[in-house]
Each structure stands twice: as structure tokens, then as C-alpha cells.
Amino acid sequence: MPYIKRIESELSPLQHDLRHHKLYNVLKTTEDVKLFMENHVYTTWDFMSLLKTLQLQFVTYKLPWVPNKNPEIFKFINEIVAAEESDVNELGQIRSHFEMYIDCMEQIGASTTLINTFTELIENGIDVSKASNLVYIPEFIKDFIEFTFNIIETEQPHLMASVFIFGREDIISEKVLNVVSNIETDKTPCTKLTYLLNRYLFLKQEDQRALSYKMLNELCGNDTEKWDGVLTVAKEALKHRTILWDNIYDIIITNKEKEA
After folding, report:
1. What is the DSSP letter of 154?
2. Per-residue model confidence as pLDDT tens for the chain (260 residues)
3. Is 104:37 a contact under the CB 8 Å cutoff?
4. Which is nearest to 89 in space by CA: 106, 73, 74, 75?
5. How far apart are CA 137 and CA 196, in angstroms?
6. Domain ranges of the chain
7. What is the DSSP string of 104-148?
8. How far is residue 249's CA from residue 260's CA, in Å, rounded to a whole number?
9. How many angstroms from the chain centroid is the CA of residue 36?
10. 258 three-state secondary structure
11. Which residues of 131-150 are buried (b: 16+ CB within 10 A; e: fewer)?
12. In the CATH scheme, what is the code of domain 2-259?
């Protein structure tokens, strides 16, 4: 896979910087985790729109039914969608990961007012851009969401797959779990967050990389222009993630200075 190897090589420095971002070193207290979640939650929401749109690229709605031409990829995407959209929480209830994340926020006392208002506006037919302006959402989060939906609106599956595979360097569950174990007390229960982070780890245990690459090869073939687009978009996505992490870091540091 010469195309894949080139992409991996060029993305490696950006991915390394994200995995070792200074943000993880300042997550120490319950207040730090609250601030992190209040800003990060939007990425758990917009990820679902990206994933669902990508799923539609491999779905056939024709009747009468005929077998899918890419059953392995179709199964791969459907399993991820099922886990993200209808997983089981610590109480045995069917919940999406986004809803479980909101539950985690409520348990530790993080504010869910803005994200709930935002999603309610969208549920009532307000478009994403207008909803983000009606609710006070920091500009760096608006930019992150806008980038995701700009990629979706291209209607180019290989670009959506690029963001999905390479551009969604998300929280490192092991590092956050260590923080959560230190802040959890009787007054600050974190059972829901601990469960969700462990769930993320469990779901990532399976090797999905090979199928992800197979999906890209199916979408790009030998079209060098498409592969170039995959690389460009992946770099942009990782840069947006870095900007997000930088800003959350600044918010936490500023709050620590106020409390000092």
C-alpha cells in the first residue's frame, strides 16, 4: 500500500504531538475534567454525523434487495455505528455514546446547558451554523464543527473516510482514566465516566486499521488525486484537533490561575 504508507509517514508527527499534548499534563482536578468535557463534548456529537454520512455511502436502498458489493466494509461501518449509536451503559440501558457522555458530565457536575440547547435547536430544524451562533459556543469549537460539516457537504466519501480514519485523534482513555481515579470521591462519583472510558478502550481493542485501509483503497483505487485529497484533509483535521486541544488547555490554565 504505497499510498497508505506515504500518508502514515506524513501524518506521524501530527499524531505524535496530539498523543503527547500538554493538555493531558494539566488534567488534575475535578474542575479540570469538567472544563475539558464541556468543550470536548461537541466533538462526540459531530462525529456521529460524519459516521452516519459515511455509512450511507455503502448502503443500498434499492428494492428488491441485492447483496452489498462491499459486505466486509459494510459490516465494519455498521458495527461502529451500532456501538456508537446504541451501546449499553453501566446500568444495562441502551444509549448512544453521546448520551452516555452527557450522563457522565451530569454525574460529575459539568454544565450541559449549552450542548443540550445546541442539540435541541438542531432537533427543532435549526441548521448547525445558525444553532452554533444562537448558543454561546467558543469560536474554536465552531471552527471545528464547521470543518466537519464542510467535509460532509463535499459529498466525497474518500474525504469523509480520511477524517474518520486519520483525523479523529480523540481522548487517550488510559490517561484520562488515571485522572478520574485520582479525583473520584464519595462527593464526586465518576462511575459513569470510568465505565465509558473503559468502554472506549474495549471497543478499540479490535484491529480496525486493516479494514479502514481497505475502505480507503475501495474509495480511492489508483486515483492519485483522491489520495492527495485524503492526505490534505487528514492533515487539516489533525490541525483542527490540535487547535481544539490548545484552546482547552488555555481554558484550564486560565481557570487554575484564577483559583490560585
Report:
1. T
2. 689 999 999 999 999 999 899 999 999 999 999 999 999 999 999 999 999 999 988 876 678 888 888 888 888 889 889 989 999 999 999 999 999 999 999 999 999 999 999 999 999 999 999 999 999 899 999 999 999 999 999 999 999 999 998 987 666 778 888 888 888 887 788 999 999 999 888 877 556 778 888 889 989 999 999 999 999 999 999 999 999 999 999 999 999 999 87
3. yes
4. 106
5. 25
6. 2-259
7. HHHHHT---HHHHHHHHHHHTT--HHHHHHHTT--HHHHHHHHHH
8. 17
9. 14
10. helix
11. bbeebebbebbbebbbbbbe
12. 1.20.910.10
Cell of 33: 475534567
Sign for the CA dihedral angle at 52, 53, 58, 60 comes to positive
Look-up of cell digits 462527593: 187
Q: Scanning the structure block, which residue is given the C-alpha cell 499510498?
A: 3
- What grid cell was written down for 103? 450522563
Q: Report d(CA 136, CA 133) in Å as an integer.
A: 7
The three state secondary structure string of 50-88 is: HHHHHHHCCCCCCCCCCCCCCHHHHHHHHHHHHHHHCEE
Written as one letter, the residue type at 182 is N
